[in-house]
Design goal:
Length: 669
């Protein structure tokens, strides 16, 4: 059931957010399999003949498929963790057989109970939303299947899974779009989404080796990059550019793509003052972005004219000469297929050139995602014809920006650290909402015609608020026969205005009814939420107390280690500095005595220096005597000063610090 899998996804997100993942992504799944072993042991399972028995229990408990190689790796890690010198809880034999003994793992049971309640509430809320919004659904659990929609999209790339995960999710998309304004509910939805992406770890064995990758950007990606789409779309495109640079990817764009983007913006500028309905229906429309950013027609034209410079600021390289590619692209299968789905032959040729370029860069067909060295990256609400290039398990030439970000986040630790999971959830959910809601929208030509008709015949009789309500019904696929409405405008202007007012009133009633019902539901939830929060608090306190005990133990061990090292360091320094302390003063005294003997008491009969000089040269003159004395005193002085300096050096701060470093290195060894 999708609901059970949603609980698993929420649990995976919690584990990722609170764990350290010391051994890599596989650590996320260790607590799940521990719970499986614990439940099996509790149910009287003490041994098994095959790993498949654990897999069957895990798949049933979490409703996700654990591949045997991954499960074996997880179980080997569990063996290392839970077995002690005193007791062996779990043994995995080479032939796949296993034994279980007195093993219990209840760390996440309370959390799972809490998440179960939250998931049930989310389903109840979805049901109520649909009832008050004139939305028909076959199964309320479809909301969870919709949230995990991107997981199935990613599977197309990373495990060649062809499950398209249903067809129409208009009701589900509207629900999430509405509740993005309610943090308590939206956080639950994001948690399920992130968990669904994390679950992809068990499908994806990424190669860690760096590779040269080239990204060729499509027109809709550029529109998003320069903030002429939704804010979320801009965030997606700019995040991908940032990540691509961090990974040393090559980022390029065809000169044809720049021309196509400029033409698009100039056409939008030409119709700038004639559009109102269009920007209210399609959130991803350029007009919507202009409205949001207070951009004028002149501003839009200036953005188009400065596009080359803007792309240069983003570090995007322009492929200038595409004449040869154009000639060759006209004879490709891709061009024939694109001509059937694109609005014009020029647009079909543009995409065919891009596909041909990627094909040439790859040189050969590629099955594994990790080995792909070139992608045609788009930011489209739906990749028309995208799936037609996925043949016999080979990687397609095109990929959506959010899908690429998801896979990079899943496979690359550096990307994982640079993109916050909250941002990834917003990017992914916004993408599937947009693609779902825009899939059933009428063609822009029909919407533009309706826009013109409203300006001509209804501008004085219907308010902007009512037009927005009509636009909402079109977006939600509740007002479908737009062509019929346009015909009505030509045939009967009065009836056309009346029909618009009727549709606006319908939407107004839906929104009022929805608010009333949701208020009642929120009041019920608030009582349950308080109880849930108390359960969460108790759980966190218990977890916190265990953590504090462990932290206290670790702190004491660290303190003990530091004390031992301090004593060791003190003893080693004492040995190192002892010669300085013992010989420093005596050496100075000896030097002083030598000077006295050479010069002050030179005529005394007990002067050993005089006896030494006489022994060398009995017939010495007074001058030679002085030369001998100066020479002897100089040699001895230099020797003693050297010894003094060496001794004193052991007391100098820099020498002491250097020696401390040597002590530390020896201590670690």
């Amino acid at each position: 059931m999708n609901k059970d899998r949603a609980i698993t996804y929420s649990l995976l997100t919690h584990i990722r957010n609170t764990g350290t993942l010391a051994n890599g992504p596989i650590d996320i799944f260790i607590p799940l399999i521990k719970r499986t072993l614990s439940k099996m042991n509790k149910e009287g399972v003490f041994k098994g003949k095959s790993l498949l028995e654990i897999k069957k229990a895990s798949d049933k408990l979490y409703k996700i498929d654990f591949p045997i190689p991954v499960l074996k790796k997880i179980l080997n890690e569990i063996c290392k963790e839970i077995n002690t010198d005193d007791i062996t809880h779990f043994v995995l034999y080479n032939d796949g057989a296993f034994s279980l003994n007195q093993y219990s793992f209840t760390d996440y049971d309370e959390l799972v109970n809490t998440q179960t309640v939250e998931i049930n509430e989310l389903e109840q809320l979805f049901n109520s939303f649909c009832e008050t919004s004139e939305l028909k659904i076959k199964n309320s659990e479809s909301i969870f299947k919709f949230i995990e929609k991107n997981k199935f999209t990613l599977s197309k790339y990373i495990s060649h899974n062809k499950d398209i995960n249903g067809l129409d999710y208009s009701a589900e998309a509207q629900f999430i779009d509405f509740f993005k304004k309610f943090p308590l509910i939206y956080e639950r939805i994001k948690s399920i989404y992130i968990g669904s992406i994390i679950a992809g770890y068990i499908e994806y064995n990424s190669e860690s080796a760096e590779r040269d990758v080239e990204l060729l950007l499509d027109t809709n990606f550029i529109v998003g990059l320069i903030d002429l789409n939704t804010p979320e779309s801009t965030h997606t495109c700019r995040t991908l550019i940032k990540v691509a640079k961090q990974q040393n990817f090559t980022i390029r764009i065809l000169i044809d793509t720049i021309e196509e983007t400029k033409n698009l913006l100039h056409v939008k500028a030409d119709y700038f003052n004639k559009s109102f309905l269009q920007k209210k229906i399609n959130q991803e429309d350029v007009y919507n972005a202009c409205d949001r950013r207070n951009i004028t027609k002149s501003d839009l034209e200036r953005i188009a004219d400065n596009l080359d410079a803007t792309l240069n600021e983003f570090g995007i390289t322009i492929i200038q000469n595409t004449d040869k590619l154009k000639k060759e692209a006209k004879f490709t299968e891709a061009y024939k297929k694109f001509k059937k789905v694109r609005r014009s032959e020029k647009s079909a040729l543009h995409d065919s050139i891009a596909i041909l370029y990627i094909t040439k860069q790859r040189k050969n067909k590629i099955k594994e995602f990790d080995k792909v060295n070139a992608w045609f990256v788009n930011n489209s609400i739906s990749v028309e014809g995208g799936s037609i290039f996925l043949k016999n398990g080979y990687q397609p030439e095109t990929i959506k920006a959010d899908d690429l970000l998801n896979i990079l986040w899943l496979s690359n630790p550096q990307v994982n650290e640079s993109i916050k999971s909250n941002d990834l959830a917003n990017i992914g959910l916004t993408s599937i909402i947009s693609s779902t809601l825009n899939k059933n929208l009428p063609k822009s030509k029909i919407i533009r015609e309706l826009d013109d008709n409203i300006h001509k015949y209804a501008k004085e009789n219907i308010s902007d608020t009512d037009v927005i309500l009509v636009a909402t019904r079109i977006t939600n696929n509740q007002l479908k026969n737009i062509e019929e409405l346009n015909q009505l405008a030509n045939d009967d202007k009065v009836e056309f205005v009346r029909r618009l007012e009727e549709e606006a009133n319908k939407q107004k009633q839906i929104e009022n009814s929805r608010i009333e019902n949701l208020e009642k539901l929120f009041n019920e939830f608030s009582i349950k939420t308080n109880e849930l929060e108390k359960s969460k608090t108790d759980y966190n306190e218990k977890s916190g107390s265990i953590d504090s005990i462990l932290r206290e133990r670790d702190t004491k061990l660290i303190q003990l280690e530091e004390e031992n090292y301090a004593l060791h360091e003190k003893e080693e320094l004492r040995k190192f500095q002892n010669p300085a302390r013992v010989f420093f003063i005596p050496l100075i005294i000896i030097l002083f005595i030598i000077i006295l003997l050479c010069f002050t008491f030179k005529d005394k009969p007990w002067n050993i220096i005089s006896h030494f000089i006489d022994g060398i040269d009995i017939e010495t003159s007074s001058t030679r005597q002085w030369i001998y004395r100066i020479g002897i005193s100089t040699l001895i002085t230099f020797g003693i000063i050297g010894l003094i300096k060496a001794s004193y050096g052991r007391l100098a701060k820099n020498k002491v610090e250097d020696y401390k470093d040597k002590i530390k290195l020896r201590y670690k060894k």
